[in-house]
Structure formats: structure tokens, C-alpha cells
């Protein structure tokens, strides 16, 4: 959307300029993840700032404000304010002055993207660079919060999935070569609009390469210097859906499988949804009949169940009749037909011609239960790929990681004022830092907050200049972010 940048606010921001004390010349704020509502998460992946800067602070402000006629943008803003807050409730001289200046007089300093940021440690600071525009710092709070919390949250959740996959790969396989593909992004159709899907999908791709969210790859090329011809950004495989399987009719399902693996995709990977009618019939009747064709292919046939409890379908249901396919679970049934190898760690790994992906109702809890269930049955974690969907990436809010942007320092009539909030009615979550801040490594080598510093201390910290007076000052790349996150 190309909405007027001035309008990307909560209404209460519009007149804060007149509410600050007379003589205010500086407002200095930070963005901080304050609290985790995700078990075992005490560090947040910082991601999305470069997109915010390039798209909103540079492109949109330039094209939709500074390059427009001043009379046009001022009249449009006056119309919005007058008809919503009352005629003359917000005056226009500060908007006219900003247009005359010709750029956003702001400075943003931040930790490098891909940094693991401990809770209650600011990721970035923002302040005005021109005393007349002190009001602009927190005018952008709503927009900055709106855009940044989601890519950070999705990237953090993806990293948690990755950590669990890594753990079971180490324990049951001995290497992590396949983990990049074990978490596959299936979320796009369930997200709250295209931008939500794209920035979340890009966060997923910091930890994995499997995705069906095509525009997330475009996003990383457009905003993060990625190049699909020079590096693997993300990828997928040919895959069916229920309309394809249904069109062959129930009595022709076996023929549909045979056509897909011998004619349509005689080589390479193909994923086939297999629960359209009777998943266990596919596993125990059709696949044994197709074994010779599957084993003769140069590639993998991936079976995709798409309904039921994923833990029970994959690992087996102890309450099902003993010896039944449902009791054994899909991986054990596939092993009985196709066999495979045993890893150095002593776990069974299916023949590379056959595999399994489950992309319905996966959660971190179910991921853990699936991998632990397979391990307990003597199967390696690489036997399954999990599709991570909107149930994971959409059932979150700004409060999932407690993101908030707060002012901690200001200057009035030439005097600095360390400011903070610490509500007595709160549990401590909303207590802010105070004054100028410095982010520096603590004894564990992790970023830590040191507040109430001076300007020299602020300058000596880990925060790096990213944006100043309308220009991007530091360019991040997907490659660099992945390396940084992997090292973390």
C-alpha cells in the first residue's frame, strides 16, 4: 500500500508536539523485547530493520511526502486531522517545516540484524538530529512497532524449531546436513495479508531453506542483497493438492500415484498428498505395489498425510489395535516396505527413495513429541520434514515477546533529562531503561544493557549507525545475517 506516511500513526501521536515541555529539543527512544511468552525463549532474533528503513523511511517518505507538492500533502493531512479530531485541533506549521527540510531528520542506531538479543536489552535507538523536529522520534513509534515485532518474532520462533531439529539430528544422525530442509514454511495462506506473510516468511528463512512462500524470496532479494543465482535463499519441490488427487477419482488413486511418479515426475523429488480417502491404504497397499517404480526412480517420493494427530500418524497410536498400521505409525510402515540404513548413532533412516512430510497443525510441542517419539522407536529425525504453518506464525502478537518503544532521554532548554517509567501497578515488565543507553558485551559475550550513560558511553557501545537524515548508512545481507545467527 502507498498510504500517506504522515498518516501511519495512532491519532494520539498527532499532537504530542505541543504536549512536550516548552524548549524540548531532543527525544531519544529505544525498541526493546521486554518479556517472553514462549517457553525457553530468553533471546530474540533481531530482524527487519533494513526493510523498515528502505521501504518506509526512505521510499515511502520520499515518494509520497517529500516529492509531493507541499500544499497537497499538508491539505491531505489537515483534512484527516480536522475531520477526525476537530477543526484546527492539530496545526500544520511543523508539517510544512518538515517538508521544507526535505528529509527525515532522524538517527537510528542498532545491533546488527541476526543478533540474538537477550530480553530487556534494546535492539535499537532512535532520536531526532534537528532540534526543531524533536516530535518526530516518537511520532514513528506506532509504525516502527507495527512493522518490526513480527519479523523478529517469526525469526525467533523459527530459530527455536531449528534448535530442536539440530538437537535430534546430532543425537540420531550425527550431522545436520538435512536440517535446513526439515522446517518448511507453509504459512502464507493463513497470514494476515501479504506483508505479514512476507516478512514472517523471510524470518523463517534465516534458519531454514524450505519454503512455499514465494514472495519471501523476492523480499530478501529486494531488501537484503540476496541473489538466488548465487546462493540458496529458499526452495521447495513439486507437490500435489487434494484437487489433483480427487480429480483422478477414488478408484483411480493408485493409478494417479503411478502416473505422478513414472510419467509426470519420473525423477527428482515429488510430494504427494496421501490422505484424500484412506491414508493407511495408501501406506500399506498402494506403496508396496509401487515399490519397484519408486526404488527405480532417481529421486524421492515424499508421502504427505494431511489430517489427524500428527504425532500419532507419524509415530504410531498406542491405543490403536496392536499390529495395525495406525499402531505402528507411518514411518514404521514405510520402513517395513522400503527399509533403509542405520546411522552411526544406531537409528534407522529410511531409504532415500522414500520420505514423509507433515504440514498440518504442527506446533513446537508437537515437533518435540514427533522427534522424541521417533527416537524412542529407534528412528532418526531425518525421516520426517515438518511443514510450519500459520498456526505457528500467526497465533502471536506484539506481546508474545513484549516489544515496546520507549523514550528514555530528552533535552529541554539545553539540559539533558534521563527519563523512565516504572509503574507501581506493574510486575516489572513495563519498567524501562533510564537515560542514554550503552549496549556492550557482558561476561558471557552477550549484549547487555548499561543505562544512564553519557554520550561518549553511548557512542562506544555495540549499536551501529543504520540510518541518518534520510540515508541508509549500513547495508545488511541475508548471507551475513544467516552467518551471524548461526554463530549465535
Describe the structure.
By secondary structure, this protein is α/β, with parallel strands linked by helices. The protein folds into two domains: 5-16 and 23-151 and 415-487, nicotinate phosphoribosyltransferase; 153-393, TIM Barrel, CATH 3.20.20. The chain is built from 19 helices and 19 strands. It has helices at 49-66, 70-85, 93-101, 136-139, 141-172, 179-182, 194-204, 214-223, 242-247, 253-264, 279-289, 291-296, 310-315, 325-328, 330-338, 364-376, 390-393, 455-460, 478-487, and strands at residues 24-33, 43-45, 106-110, 116-118, 124-128, 183-185, 210-211, 270-273, 301-304, 340-342, 348-350, 354-358, 385-388, 403-412, 415-418, 436-441, 447-453, 464-468, 471-472. The chain has a seven-stranded antiparallel sheet. Helix 5 (141-172) packs parallel to helix 16. The longest helix is centred in the N-terminal third of the chain and has 32 residues, at 141-172.
Number of helices: 19
Question: CATH superfamily name of the largest domain?
Answer: Aldolase class I
What integer value in Å does the Rg equal?
27 Å
Low-confidence regions: none
Q: Rough shape?
A: elongated
Kindly state the percentage of residues in helix.
25-40%
* Named CATH topology of the largest domain: TIM Barrel
Biggest beta-sheet profile: 7 strands, antiparallel
State the name of the first-level CATH class of the largest domain: Alpha Beta
Cα-to-Cα separation, first versus last residue: 35 Å
Total number of domains? 2
Number of strands: 19
Amino acid at each position: 500500500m502507498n498510504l500517506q506516511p504522515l498518516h501511519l500513526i495512532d491519532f494520539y501521536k498527532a499532537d504530542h508536539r505541543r504536549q512536550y515541555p516548552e524548549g524540548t529539543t531532543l527525544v531519544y527512544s529505544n525498541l526493546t523485547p521486554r518479556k517472553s511468552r514462549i517457553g525457553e525463549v530468553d533471546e530474540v532474533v533481531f530482524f527487519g530493520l533494513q526493510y523498515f528503513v528502505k521501504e518506509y523511511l526512505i521510499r515511502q517518505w520520499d515518494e509520497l511526502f517529500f516529492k509531493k507538492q507541499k500544499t497537497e500533502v499538508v491539505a491531505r493531512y489537515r483534512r484527516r486531522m480536522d475531520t477526525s479530531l476537530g477543526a484546527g485541533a492539530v496545526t500544520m506549521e511543523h508539517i510544512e517545516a518538515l517538508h521544507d527540510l526535505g528529509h527525515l531528520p532522524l538517527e537510528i542506531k542498532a545491533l546488527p540484524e541476526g543478533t540474538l538479543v537477550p530480553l530487556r536489552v534494546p535492539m535499537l535507538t532512535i532520536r531526532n538530529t534537528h532540534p526543531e523536529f524533536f516530535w518526530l522520534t516518537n511520532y514513528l513509534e506506532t509504525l516502527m512497532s507495527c512493522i518490526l515485532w513480527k519479523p523478529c518474532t517469526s525469526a525467533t520462533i523459527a530459530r527455536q524449531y531449528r534448535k530442536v531439529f539440530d538437537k535430534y539430528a546430532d543425537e540420531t544422525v550425527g550431522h545436520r546436513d538435512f536440517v535446513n530442509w526439515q522446517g518448511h514454511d507453509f504459512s502464507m495462506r493463513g497470514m494476515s495479508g501479504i506483508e505479514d506473510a512476507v516478512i514472517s516468511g523471510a524470518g523463517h528463512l534465516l534458519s531454514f531453506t524450505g519454503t512455499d512462500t514465494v514472495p519471501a524470496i523476492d523480499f530478501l532479494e529486494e531488501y537484503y542483497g540476496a541473489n538466488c543465482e548465487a546462493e540458496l535463499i529458499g526452495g521447495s519441490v513439486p507437490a500435489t493438492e487434494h484437487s489433483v488427487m480427487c480429480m483422478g477419482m477414488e478408484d483411480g488413486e493408485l493409478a494417479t500415484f503411478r502416473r505422478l511418479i513414472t510419467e509426470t515426475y519420473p525423477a527428482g523429488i515429488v510430494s504427494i498428498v496421501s490422505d484424500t480417502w484412506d491414508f493407511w491404504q495408501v501406506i500399506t497397499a498402494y506403496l508396496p505395489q509401487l515399490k519397484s517404480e519408486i526404488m527405480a526412480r532417481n529421486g524421492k517420493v515424499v508421502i504427505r498425510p494431511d489430517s489427524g494427530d500428527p504425532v500419532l500418524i507419524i509415530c504410531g497410536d498406542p491405543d490403536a489395535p496392536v499390529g495395525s498400521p495406525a499402531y505402528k505409525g507411518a514411518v514404521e510402515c514405510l520402513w517395513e516396505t522400503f527399509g533403509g540404513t542405520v546411522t552411526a548413532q544406531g537409528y534407522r533412516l529410511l531409504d532415500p527413495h522414500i520420505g514423509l512430510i507433515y504440514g498440518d497443525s504442527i506446533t513446537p510441542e508437537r515437533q518435540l513429541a514427533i522427534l522424541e517419539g521417533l527416537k524412542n522407536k529407534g528412528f532418526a529425525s531425518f525421516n520426517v520434514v515438518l511443514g510450519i504453518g500459520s498456526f505457528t506464525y500467526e497465533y502471536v502478537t506484539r506481546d508474545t515477546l513484549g516489544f515496546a518503544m520507549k523514550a528514555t532521554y530528552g533535552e529541554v532548554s539545553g539540559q539533558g533529562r534521563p527519563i523512565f517509567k516504572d509503574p507501581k501497578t506493574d510486575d516489572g515488565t513495563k519498567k524501562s531503561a533510564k537515560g542514554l543507553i550503552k549496549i556492550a558485551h557482558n561476561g558471557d559475550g552477550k549484549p547487555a544493557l548499561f543505562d544512564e550513560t553519557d554520550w561518549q558511553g553511548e557512542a562506544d557501545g555495540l549499536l551501529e549507525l543504520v540510518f541518518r537524515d534520510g540515508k541508509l548508512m549500513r547495508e545488511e545481507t541475508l548471507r551475513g545475517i544467516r552467518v551471524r545467527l548461526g554463530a549465535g
